[in-house]
Specification:
With about 120 residues, the chain is α/β, with parallel strands linked by helices. About 35% of the residues lie in helices and about 20% in strands. The chain has one domain. This is Carbonic anhydrase.
Length: about 120
């Protein structure tokens, strides 16, 4: 039995942001199916994310990945700044494109107030 989905969403485990992430996926992935994984620091541990991405590509033939970091991340501690998160998100996108050049990669920084800021 083939079971494919459209996307993989990678976010942090922080409970404070789960409502916002649900609202984001309801709005931006409406009508689509997606795998959802949560890691402390989201894609901070890029090796682990790449492993999960590989599984999602292989088993579910995803075409998109959404990487979501957030403000005030405990996994980053004092380094939890917009600049640091943006750098890590861009680094993750480069690693993903190097291995999966046909994937669409979307990067977001989630503020405490629930606002999603696109990272380029």
């Amino acid at each position: 039995m083939v079971h494919t989905c459209d996307a993989l969403v990678v976010c942090c485990i922080d409970f404070r942001f789960q409502k916002h992430i649900r609202e984001f996926t309801d709005k931006n992935l409406s009508g689509k199916t997606f795998d959802l994984v949560g890691f402390a620091g989201s894609s901070k541990d890029l090796k682990t994310v790449m492993k999960q991405l590989g599984i999602s590509v292989r088993l579910h033939e995803i075409k998109e990945i959404y990487l979501i970091h957030h403000e005030n991340c405990g996994a980053y501690g004092e380094e939890s700044t917009f600049t640091r998160h943006s750098q890590d998100l861009v680094k993750a996108r480069s690693a993903i494109f190097a291995k999966y050049p046909d994937l669409s990669v979307y990067l977001y920084y989630l503020h405490l107030d629930g606002e999603f800021e696109k990272v380029f």
